[in-house]
Amino acid sequence: MKTKIVLITLLLAAFVASTASARVPRKNPTEFDKGTMAYDKQQYQKAIEWMDKVLLQNPDNGYALAYKGSSLRYLDQLDEAITALDRASTLIDDVNTAFRAWTQSERFRVLIAKGDTVAAMQAIDLAIRDDAKQAVYWENRAVIKAAQGNLDEAIADYDQAVSLAPNDTQLIEKRQRAIDYNEQYKASAAAIAAGEDYTERDITDADEVVMPQFPGGNDALREYIFKKTGWDTSKSPVSVMVDVTINNEGKVTNAVIKQGYNKDLDNKALKICRKLPNFSPATHHGQPIESTITVPVRFPKPNK
Questions:
Q1: Which range, of 34-48, 68-82, 180-194, 279-293, averages the lowest pLDDT?
Q2: Count of Cβ atoms closer than 10 Å to residue 304 Cβ
Q3: Residues ≥6 apart with Cβ < 8 Å to 41
Q4: 138-142, 186-190, 230-234: range with highest mean pLDDT
Q5: Nearest alpha carbon to residue 141 among 109, 167, 110
Q6: Is the N or C terminus of the chain more exposed, i.e. has fewer CB atoms within 10 Å?
Q7: E strands, 156-300, where?
């Protein structure tokens, strides 16, 4: 029996919408105002510099810590980001639960990038507790639950997200894919239980799948890509998301754009991903398998 594996990856940058809103500049902006304006313009290093000035005067300013942590996340400084966001989440009180929820959602994204799905689930649960009217929070929790194999619960979260954003066509499509996937998975499981030969099926991490590993791990993969793109953490990034297929020998056999930016950067991202060194292949019950992962490729933001 041939089994095809399509892994549900946890690189969620492509799934999460920003909740930051544009601000009207003040005539005499404070250092905090300048920091938030830099953040909105995706000038994350400048945002950090302004927030550090705020924190020098008041180390317990949870709002400045939250913006600093989010900026650090965009710059891929994950350890520093989680330290700032953890502290921010304890300092923002019930006066502004919506902002505290956003802080938790930023924690969620950092924890996902670090591979800590248990803590990430706790963070998104707290975000929903504080602000249950944000469709993106329910969507993100649905993605985690789907990756854990809890497809019925994932669909319930997608239902809630769609009820809050009924005109979001992409969200509706994701919900339908989860429903289709769930039906396919249950059909394949029933066929296998009945001893039938089911030649192709999708499975999740809950089926004892070990993800493919880049030599040196995810940090090494990020460093490899940074060297190829010329981006460093002092610059504002743009991202191209690439679905990369890795065969049972660990070789990259295909790469396609999942979420692009422009033709030039999309082509560069594909070229980088198609030439990635061999991975340790994914395994299912200890046996090497073909898999597909989503790789974010970050470039310096173009001038134009």
A1: 180-194
A2: 4
A3: none
A4: 138-142
A5: 109
A6: C
A7: 209-210, 237-246, 252-259, 282-284, 287-289, 291-300
- Rounded Cα gap, residues 226 and 232, in angstroms: 7
Task: Report which of 297, 298, 296 is spatially closest to residue 112, judged by C-alpha positions.
Answer: 296
Beta bridge partners of 259: 241
Q: Nearest CA to 158 among 232, 170, 148, 149?
A: 170
Q: What are phi and psi of 193, to 5 degrees?
A: -60, -30
Residue keyed to tokens 């192709």: 200
Q: Which two tokens stand for residue 147?
A: 């990756």
Token readout for 121 is 């689930």
C-alpha span between 165 and 159 (Å, rounded)? 10
Retrieve residue 178's tokens.
Answer: 């989860």
pLDDT at 198 over 60: no
User: Does 27 score more than 90 pLDDT?
Assistant: no
Please, which residues have CB within 8 angstroms of residue 136's CB and are 6 or more apart in sequence?
16, 17, 19, 105, 161
Distance of alpha carbon 71 from alpha carbon 75, whole angstroms: 6
The encoded tokens of residue 170 equal: 């992409």
* Span 242-254, average pLDDT: 89
Cβ distance 206 to 5 under 8 Å?
no
Confidence of residue 170 (pLDDT cuts 50, 70, 90): confident
Domains of the chain: 20-133 (1.25.40.10), 208-300 (3.30.2420)
Residue 10, C-beta contacts closer than 8 angstroms, at least 6 positions apart: 112, 115, 117, 143, 144, 147
Residue whose pair of structure tokens reads 């008041």 in the numeric block: 58
The dihedral through the CA atoms of 259, 265, 270, 272 has a sign that is: negative
Mean pLDDT of 252-261: 88
